[in-house]
Design a protein that fits this description.
mainly alpha, single chain, 6 helices
């Protein structure tokens, strides 16, 4: 199991690196576009590149968010549920997300076939199907990582921590740090 977790960690690091690079590229492209507009220079394709980079960014980040349990969740009612029910609901959620992502993979497969030979509107070197392939890979990873997260939840290897539990832990940690600081100050004063 350690090897599997190490593989997942390496995948996560690679995706974070790729997504970080994509964010820098997006920022640079947008800044160049703004400067070009200010100087009345027409630049075709920069907005399109930024848009495609953002799409790739999102679809590569989604599986990692699913794996780490950082999905968007409305916690107002969810956190009030008992732990076992919360875990069951999350497991069902991850299975449903896997099914949804699998349907999206199939849709991307069809889009890749339909977009064969189609070039991007402003960037004639960029094949639209290339973007679809990257999105399909991200979605396929989402299927797998949602199922892995479901398995981790059901076997107790991952635990959902409610916002109240997080807040209580933060308060306790702050209280301990304050008490330790007070103890150090007392020792110095004696």
């Amino acid at each position: 199991m350690k090897t599997f977790n190490k593989i997942l960690d390496n995948i996560e690091k690679a995706v974070i690196t790729i997504d970080s690079i994509l964010l820098v590229v997006i920022a640079i492209i947008v800044v160049i576009q703004v400067i070009a507009r200010k100087l009345n220079i027409s630049m075709t394709g920069t907005e399109e590149l930024a848009r495609y980079a953002y799409v790739i960014f999102a679809f590569l980040a989604w599986p990692i968010a699913a794996l780490r349990g950082t999905d968007v969740c409305v916690t107002f009612l969810f956190d009030k549920l008992p732990t076992k029910i919360r875990t069951g609901v999350l497991a069902v959620f991850h299975i449903a997300m896997s099914v949804f992502a699998a349907l999206c993979v199939y849709s991307m497969y069809l889009n890749i076939q339909n977009a064969a030979g189609v070039l991007a509107a402003s960037n004639r070197w960029l094949h639209v199907s290339w973007v679809y392939v990257i999105v399909a890979v991200g979605l396929a990873a989402t299927v797998v990582f949602n199922l892995v997260r479901c398995f981790f939840l059901l076997t107790g290897q991952a635990v959902y921590v409610s916002q109240d539990e997080k807040d209580t832990a933060e308060i306790e940690a702050a209280k301990q740090a304050f008490e330790e600081e007070q103890k150090k100050l007392k020792e110095k004063g004696e």
